[in-house]
Amino acid sequence: MATVACTSTDEPGTGTGTKEVEVFTWWADGGEKAGLTGLETVFGTECKDFKFVNGAVAGGAGSNAKQVLASRLQQGTPPDTFQAHAGAELSDYINDDQIEDLSAQYGEWGLSNAFPKGLIDNLTVDGKIYSVPANIHRANVLWGNKTVLAKAGITKDATTLEGFFADLDKLKAAGVATPLALGKDWTQQMLFEALLISKLGPEKFNALWNGTGDWAGADMTAAITDYKKLLTYTNSDRDTFDWTDAEKMLMDGKAAYQLMGDWEAADLDAKGFKDYSYSVFPGNGNVFQWLADSFVLPKGAKNADGTKCWLKTVGSAAGQAEFNKKKGSIPARTDVPADGFPAYQQAAMNDWKTAVQVPSCPHGSACAQTWQGAVGSAQGKFSTDGDVAALQAALASAAAEFGPKAK
Ligand code: BGC
């Protein structure tokens, strides 16, 4: 086990006075909280001079936390550290000059070679590295209730979209009113992206986010049309549901499937539900839609020394093992042994080695928060009106206004 010893320079009467490290996340319950507790435990051993303070704000994908964080940053009262996604989302904080450069710590803690180069590139702007990644999550996973599927005669998940639609019809015919459980805005973005990967393939999907793709084309119209059909298999109260409400439909046998990131594996485990299956979303092949949670040192943090000890814990092999075993994700470090990880994560670790990688907009690896907000509103409107042309026009204008070409 790597040691993460840290000491406080914050002697009574000389420093700013606090030993507390407020860790701001949206990991408030279930598997998410279990993962955070894993990190807290290692922090407690390695950073004895400091006290962990849980600043979690509940709400999937940071739907509430990000607003609270934005106002704290604006008011100059940041937490000691906060959760930020690798990629475009992190660049938002860098461009707004809200977080510190951690390049020196990467050298000091030997992190430069611990993570895949591609991931470090997503944490770097102008040669400076701004955060420490805790994990790699996969977004494009289809979770199933085995008993409900077996009752409808489905023993193997479909590998094509056509096959998936056929299975959803089978489920309806078997009396499952809502074969596919779905939640609000960002969860709809996830389902739409998974479908886009199947319809467009990974190159064209990536191009949508790097400014070379075409949001206005006929293949996008066809994808939105299929997405509209997909929504007919989902619960009509989706816009009021967080991901855990949709997950509950799956656990209760009211739905057969749910598309969700692999924090669902940890959450189902934490809730003691064992009767689940998982597979990549039908038609996605070997595409791994990735995202990574990372932690930062905000400018003006009250306890920078304590934050550094937290960040060192997050980046350590011991911290990554304790965290990821409980969180459903896989370590961002390449040297953490797979032993002791649940079966799902062992499979994900294998997939990650050979997969084709694409990013996620609702989880920050593909798009900035402004862009995500615009896509989310367009998707929410579509959930109510089903207007294919209007959604396509809104997506195209969001890309033009907030995408890389707008810069
Ligand atoms: C985060 C995950 C979290 C999920 C659901 C994602 O944006 O990266 O860590 O489990 O949201 O809340």
Key phrases:
five-stranded mixed sheet; alpha/beta; 407 residues; binds beta-D-glucopyranose
Question: If you had to describe this structure to a student in words, what would you say it looks like?
Answer:
The chain has helices spanning 30-46, 65-75, 88-95, 103-108, 117-121, 146-151, 161-173, 185-200, 202-210, 218-231, 243-251, 263-270, 304-315, 317-327, 343-354, 369-385, 388-402, and strands spanning 20-24, 51-54, 81-85, 124-125, 128-129, 132-133, 137-138, 141-145, 180-181, 257-260, 276-280, 287-291, 293-295, 356-358. The chain contains 17 helices and 14 strands. The longest helix has 17 residues, at 30-46. The N and C termini lie far apart (44 Å). It is globular and about 60 Å long. The strands form 4 sheets. A 5-stranded mixed sheet has the order 2-1-3-13-6, sandwiched between helices. It is 46% helix and 12% strand. The chain is of the alpha/beta class and 407 residues long. Helix 1 (30-46) crosses helix 13 (304-315) and helix 8 (185-200) packs across helix 9 (202-210). A hairpin with a 2-residue loop joins strand 4 (124-125) and strand 5. Bound molecules: beta-D-glucopyranose. Beta-D-glucopyranose binds next to loops.
Helix content: 40-55%
Mean pLDDT: 95
- What kind of assembly state do the chains in view correspond to? single chain
Continuous helix count: 17
Q: In angstroms, what is the radius of gyration? A: 21 Å
Ligand inventory: beta-D-glucopyranose
Number of beta strands: 14
